[in-house]
Here is the input.
Amino acid sequence: MTYTCTLGLRRYAFGDLKNLLAKASPLRSGDMLAGVAAASEEERMAARIALADVPLARFLQEAVVPYEEDEVTRLILDGHDALAFAPVAGLTVGELRDWLLSDAADADSLQALAPGLTPEMVAAVSKLMRNQDLILVAAKCRVVTRFRNTLGLPGRLAVRLQPNHPTDDPKGIAASMLDGLLYGVGDAVIGINPATDSLPAITTLLRLIDEFREQYDVPTQSCVLTHVTNTIRAIDKGAPVDLVFQSIGGTEAVNRSFGVSAALLDEANAAARALGRGSVGNNVMYFETGQGSALSANAHHGADQQTLEARAYGLARRYQPLLVNTVVGFIGPEYLYDGKQIIRAGLEDHFCGKLLGLPMGCDICYTNHAEADQDDMDTLLTLLGVAGINFIIGVPGADDIMLNYQSTSFHDALYLRRVLDRRRAPEFEDWLERMGIADYRGELLPQGDTQPLLALAGRL
Amino acid sequence: MSKPAIVTPDPWLRLQSLTRARVALGRSGVSLPTREVLRFGTAHAQARDAVHQALDVEALQGELHEAGFNTFAVHSQAADRGVYLRRPDWGRRLAPESADALAQQAPGMWPAAPKLAIVVADGLSSLATRSHAQPLLEALVPYFPELYRLPVVVATQARVALGDEIGHILGAEQVVVMIGERPGLSSPDSLGLYLTAQPRPGLTDANRNCISNVRPEGLPYAEAARKLAFLIAGARRLGRSGVDLKDDSDSHALLPDAADPPALEATPPA
Here is the structure.
């Protein structure tokens, strides 16, 4: 079906929904690299005007990636909840934007709507929204998940402690881990990106965190971010696996390039749930995503990177994950060129994920070949804090010495807590108080000889 | 008279001896102390400069000539750094004039079907290329004495896969691309080495073997040369490079010895 818009003397035509979505997307280098971006600013606005008039019901008839070729499309369309969709079934994309901003859309109605929205609908409406719209609507969404603590409650912000080390040295990892805990970080997860994929090394890391967690009774979960097949093997060998990590994307082909499928994720999810290691809940999956992954695997089907990112969330929600992390600035400037594009993408990802019912976090980050710096990260951090993000990343001094990129620091999290009055997960907050790391308000306390973690640091 | 302490120190400074990560930074209120903001800013500035500083091709060629190597300069289809960063695909193809020049002059400069072609490329850190390519080449000479006869291709605005086209034009059995890696905050000058057998346009990373973080503070030249020689010999035996070729050089007793290069040369291509 062709979509059209006439501006003055010029008539713009868009051959299909995929093309329309791509042309309506805010400017970014990845869509230009793919050759799917609007050719002019006016064409971009024409696409948005045409997109605003598309009925939401159309998205159930016209797939962006063919149903027959792609299991993500099949999961999205076969899993669509018509009853949940009913309240907005008669709306266009433009009307959905107005409805989302209206007072009729509150935490409860948005939660009820989530299964009725497809990723493509959500991506479409995001393309009509300004940054403040993305923030306002996301801030109304509430997505609460649980494993050994409760994440996503109103007024709360969690942080993944990311104590990476270039050679997986246990003492080096422990040093960063203790530093983070003493800064009150680690409620989302203590998650290590291993330098190696060898199973014995991964098991060693899992035991390292798990023994520490048991000894000090830390109400959090651990994860070693290795391929899902390694995690399944680790579970088979009896290793203490809390969460299953996997990078996922928005098409079957990109997931194939990651070596995963829905069936494999089903298997891993079932295996981890069967362990029953969660104390307050059993959300066991931890997904990472990022705009541009499908294009970089040449698996984008001519769709724009933001729509495909939303489709990755369509896959993620099948598993009721504990954490979904968009690693927004990691992929590089050929996909998101500068601070402006990274900031926009971070807000879009958070909005789309939340609207689809996912516990969204963001690795607010950049690489040294992107046109971005700490000031851009401060801006995105603040905006996502206002938007009610479930969790962010905590790396010592914002410098990941293993992955060679800049993320957010333990200090950044403290900044956000201070200016926005965001507290940690309640169970973790209580633990910090019991340990004498923070007071009842969550403020860090001065540390001295009586701090057990300092004694441990002295023995490393 | 001493000033009162403004910055809250972290009484776990000893953790700094266990990792290069920025631990125990202390805090000003809840924020980073001034000295750390400046230290971080300096590291980022150096990394940015490493990305954006153009490789001084003439100077590098001069240094290589002085060290006894011949050179041949080429350029990718990416005209400048801005284009290079946005269009990785253009950094993977030679500019037409470079492709023509290489094709025309290769017969006089290279033997037909050379066993090995070396490409020294700017990549994402010209600093790495300028600092480490020459000493690394010198460390490789004991394994490959013919390096003094074969021109080193110096490539600018280049991605790893540019070596595929260069190697293909030369008809080389293998190509090694020495290229500046994406700079980290604490490592603005890491050189990466990529080995590709039967190079030709259209190959992917699955066809390559990589040795990363070559620099004195990371993987030293001699060690990098040893690993590379090991991979080259392995790829010759296997008849291909990539995922099927494992870097077991750390545990391999049959490693070619720098003092015994004929052993490597004697290995017939599979």
